[in-house]
Every structure is written in structure tokens, then in C-alpha cells.
Design goal:
There is one protein chain. The protein is built from eleven helices and 16 strands. The chain is α/β, with parallel strands linked by helices and 441 residues long. The chain folds into two domains: 305 residues, Alkaline Phosphatase, subunit A (3-Layer(aba) Sandwich), CATH 3.40.720; 117 residues, 2-Layer Sandwich (Arylsulfatase, C-terminal domain). The strands form four sheets. The protein has an eight-stranded mixed sheet with strand order 5-4-6-1-9-10-2-11, sandwiched between helices. Strands 13-14-15-16 form a four-stranded antiparallel sheet, with helices on one face. Strands 3-12 form a two-stranded parallel sheet. The mean pLDDT is 94.
Length: 441
């Protein structure tokens, strides 16, 4: 029997949850969900920014292959290539009714990519879940047709705060800071007043998200859909704090991934998966679980076997990339369980700031003066001895063999997937827009 699928995805969460070891954030519903399902401890995204990561998640192909190497909205103008196949198309072809609510950030034209119902009127978690719940009530009346529902929420993305400020915090008009249990300070951030204020806001936004997700789970229970519905909880990339989002350091790439399907015998309650997982693998996995054909040119690989105890060859490497976000800062990365190598293709500051604020309040623990620090051509980190990724050992003779091996692995990945960065600078859609304006009659 094909399971129903609810894919709940949010912005900029990373793994900032109680079930991932953050003791001060209030996430009882997500933590309970993790205890009832399977939690992936080493899940990473392929891109530390919104649209490219989501496009990879929904196509099973890397951003430089599916065409979304930057943001899709506004003047950024990136879009999924015409020859690609979206997860919604795969599931619709397999007999699913498909719907999307809230954030759809991988494309500007969601109906083109297989969604029969599209509702983008709401973006905050509570409102998005309210609309998704009304849709689930309608689908519950038809038990013959399986459904796929994408639920995308804004929180905990930064948003304009109340009043007149020169910063983008995590509050909006509907979230209050939450420091009732204290503040958990990640090792990559400095301990100062501004950082703590922003972390309290982040915890408040995550709490709001958790409450909305809990209501969605309650609706599935009320509609007697829980046992036959695969619920996937995930996010696009790391939190929007300095040296996290918009970087290929671990805080930018690490993501929550939790799923639950009570009717599937192979899904152990409270199970944990420690293997390296990439979010480019999500589409082929969901297709296998749904009995649907994966996209023909898929580059990810299904990990469904992990859920049933079947033989599974774990990934030795995951790959990540950034080309455009606020500006052109091309980099490519490869990570193993112990090492990470990042190759930089421009002379840019050490990391792209994700605060969206004219006057940032939070600051990184390293480097001390970010505007005065620049990329090295290649950075290599020993994650076992340096989990905070502070000591670049690319030029250390002791690590020469590791650097050469990972450089070869990364180069082969770029060659095999046809990454245009190997041929030179990548031209954005905005370039064509301006050329057209210059030459208009």
C-alpha cells in the first residue's frame, strides 16, 4: 500500500532542536515526534542557502545540474531547468494527489512541476499549518487516493522586527523571544549581548514552529491518518547566524531530518541513523517508499534500505556548493566523517554574512575581524580534532595525503556532474536582464 506523504520543511533551522542536543530550545512536539520515529544524526544539505538546497531536495540533483544556483525570487531569477523532474511530478505520475502550502522556494512556477493544489497565501507556521489541515480534512474523505502534501514554513527565517530597527531578527510580529530555559551558545558564535539577544529570538521562532507542527500531528491523529502517513520533518540548511548559513562550514550544512510511518514495520520507534546523509537523496528515497519511479537522471541515492535493515552501502562523501546568494561567492566542498575540504573560486571575505541587517547584532567566535579575513584557495579541516573548523590544515605536510585525496574526489564529482564552475565564472540571470535593458529599442 502506498503511504500518504506529508513533507514538513522550514527555513534556516539547522539542527537547533532539543532532540539534537540543544537543551534550551522548547520543542516538545518535534522531540516527541523524533521519539516516535527515526532521527538522522548526520544529515546535511548540498547548499547552505534556500532555493538551491530545496531544488536539490525536490529534484534529487545538485544545484549546478538542476539550474538553481541562486535564489529564485525577485530579481535573482534562478529557475529549475526545463528538462528536470520534480518530486511532485514523480508522485503524481504514481497516482498521488499533490498539494503544496506556504513556502515554495525552489521554483517560481510550482504548478508547472506537478502540484495540483498550490496555496502560497500564508507563510507563517501557524497559518500554513491551518491551511494544510483543512486540506487534509478534505483528503481524509478519499482513502483510495494517496496524497502528497508539502508544508513549507517561514520560521525561523529572519524577518523584519516590530518597530523601527536597522536589523532583521527572528521575531516578525507574531513571535516573542524565549530564554526561559537559558541560552544555548553554539561554539561558532561569540558570547556577547547581541548574540544572546538574537539566540533568544531564534528560540522563540523555533518554539512557534514546534507548536504549529504539533497541531499538524494532532490533525493527523484526529483524522485517523497517522498510521498510513509518512511524515518527514526537515529544513533547508543551517541557522541564519554568522559563519553558518551561506557557508560550507558544518553549521551552514547540517540539517534536521526526522521521519515517522507507524504502519511500516521496518521503521523502529525511536530509531537513530548515524550514516552520512545528503538531502539530494530525499527524492529518490521518497520515490522508493512510495513505489514511484525516481527522476531518470537522479544524482542522489535512496537510503530506504536503512529503514528496513536491508544491506546499504553508506556514503563515504557528501558534497556541497554555493554559487550565488547575496552576491557571487563560488565554493565547492566535500566532507567525510572526519575531514572536510572547501575550494574557493573567488577572493571574497571569509564568509557571507546571513543576518540581512545593516547593523548586525551577533558576531562569530572566529575569525575575530570577519571583514578583514579572506578565503584561502583551499581549506581543509580535521573535524575529529577541530570540530569548530578553526584550524585550516591544507598546508600542513601531515595532511598532504588527505588534501590530495579529497581534492581528487571533489574534482571527479564536479567533472561527473558537469559543474560549470570548471569552465569559468558562472553568469547569473540578472546579467541577461541588464543586457536586455541596455539593448532594448
Amino acid at each position: 500500500m502506498q503511504p500518504n506523504i506529508v513533507l514538513f520543511h522550514c527555513h534556516d533551522l539547522g539542527r537547533h532542536l532539543g532532540c539534537y542536543g540543544v537543551p534550551t530550545v522548547d520543542t516538545p512536539n518535534i522531540d516527541r515526534f523524533a521519539a516516535e520515529g527515526v532521527i538522522f544524526r548526520n544529515s546535511f544539505c548540498v547548499a547552505p542557502q534556500c532555493s538551491p538546497s530545496r531544488a536539490a531536495m525536490f529534484t534529487g540533483r545538485y544545484p549546478h545540474s538542476n539550474g538553481v544556483m541562486g535564489l529564485t525570487h525577485g530579481g535573482f531569477g534562478w529557475e529549475i531547468n526545463s528538462g528536470e523532474t520534480h518530486l511532485a511530478q514523480c508522485l503524481r505520475s504514481a497516482g498521488y494527489h499533490t498539494a503544496a502550502f506556504g513556502i515554495i522556494h525552489e521554483t517560481r512556477d510550482p504548478q508547472r512541476w506537478g502540484y495540483q493544489v498550490v496555496d502560497q497565501e500564508a507563510v507563517t507556521a501557524r497559518e500554513v499549518c491551518d491551511r494544510a489541515i483543512r486540506h487534509l480534512e478534505q483528503r481524509a474523505a478519499d482513502r483510495r487516493t494517496p496524497f502528497f502534501v508539502s508544508v513549507g514554513c517561514e520560521e525561523p527565517h529572519r524577518m523584519p522586527g516590530p518597530g523601527e530597527h536597522h536589523y532583521m531578527g527572528f521575531l516578525g510580529e507574531h513571535v516573542s523571544p524565549d530564554s526561559r530555559h537559558g541560552i544555548h551558545l553554539p561554539r561558532y558564535l561569540s558570547d556577547d549581548e547581541g548574540t544572546r539577544a538574537e539566540l533568544a529570538e531564534l528560540q522563540g521562532a523555533v518554539r512557534h514552529l514546534d507548536t504549529a507542527f504539533g497541531r499538524l500531528l494532532q490533525a493527523l491523529d484526529r483524522l485517523k491518518l497517522t498510521s498510513e502517513t509518512l511524515v518527514v520533518f526537515t529544513t533547508d540548511h543551517g541557522v541564519a547566524m554568522p559563519r553558518a548559513k551561506c557557508t560550507c562550514y558544518d553549521p551552514g550544512l547540517e540539517i534536521a531530518l526526522i521521519l515517522r510511518l507507524p504502519s511500516r514495520a521496518g521503521l523502529p520507534r525511536g530509531g537513530e541513523v548515524s550514516e552520512l546523509i545528503s538531502n539530494v537523496d530525499l527524492t529518490p528515497t521518497l520515490c522508493e517508499l512510495a513505489g514511484a519511479a525516481a527522476p531518470q537522471a537522479v544524482q542522489g541515492r535512496s537510503w530506504a534500505a536503512l529503514l528496513d535493515g536491508r544491506p546499504y552501502t553508506a556514503r563515504e562523501h557528501i558534497f556541497a556548493e554555493l554559487t550565488y546568494h547575496d552576491y557571487y561567492d563560488p565554493m565547492r566542498a566535500v566532507r567525510t566523517n572526519r575531514f572536510k575540504l572547501v575550494a574557493f573560486f573567488s577572493e571574497a571575505p571569509s564568509f557571507m554574512p546571513p543576518t540581512q541587517s545593516w547593523k548586525p547584532r551577533s558576531s562569530p567566535a572566529y575569525p575575530g575581524e570577519p571583514p578583514l579575513a579572506y578565503h584561502a584557495p583551499v581549506e581543509l579541516y580535521d573535524l575529529e580534532n577541530d570540530p569548530a573548523e578553526r584550524q585550516n590544515v591544507a598546508s600542513d605536510p601531515q595532511y598532504e595525503g588527505v588534501r590530495r585525496a579529497l581534492s581528487k574526489t571533489l574534482r571527479e564529482h564536479l567533472e561527473q556532474t558537469g559543474d560549470p564552475i570548471l569552465a569559468g565564472a558562472v553568469t547569473p540571470p540578472a546579467h541577461r536582464r541588464t543586457i536586455d535593458l541596455l539593448f532594448e529599442l
